[in-house]
Structure to design on (122 residues):
């Protein structure tokens, strides 16, 4: 398991298509704990945990975090929808709550890294 306070490589920017989402397991726990969504050159990173349902993972299958229009993150457990840029729930039982952001960096070489901090990321 990577040490807290370290940067962990997730993928290359080119590995995440514009408008796509993907889950990652940077703490090597055996399940995705982070989700990324790409919008143009911007990468949005969130903990893969619904704020309404006790931290339930949100994908209905591997890397399937977005609605059909690809303009909202959706929790498969109960259908809550979240704004991609802000993480705020816009529809569903957790209205007004938000996803927890993760600290990402994109290097000049196009590598997307996450900063592992605290218990949530391991």
């Amino acid at each position: 398991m990577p040490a807290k306070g370290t940067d962990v490589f997730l993928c290359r920017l080119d590995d995440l298509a514009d408008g796509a989402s993907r889950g990652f397991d940077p703490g090597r726990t055996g399940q995705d704990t982070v989700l990324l969504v790409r919008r143009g050159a911007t990468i949005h990173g969130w903990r893969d945990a619904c704020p309404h349902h006790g931290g339930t993972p949100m994908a209905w299958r591997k890397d399937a975090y977005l609605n059909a229009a690809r303009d909202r993150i959706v929790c498969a457990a109960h259908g809550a929808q979240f704004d991609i840029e802000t993480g705020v729930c816009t529809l569903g039982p957790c209205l007004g709550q938000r996803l927890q952001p993760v600290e990402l960096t994109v290097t000049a070489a196009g590598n997307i890294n996450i900063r592992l901090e605290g218990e949530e990321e391991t």
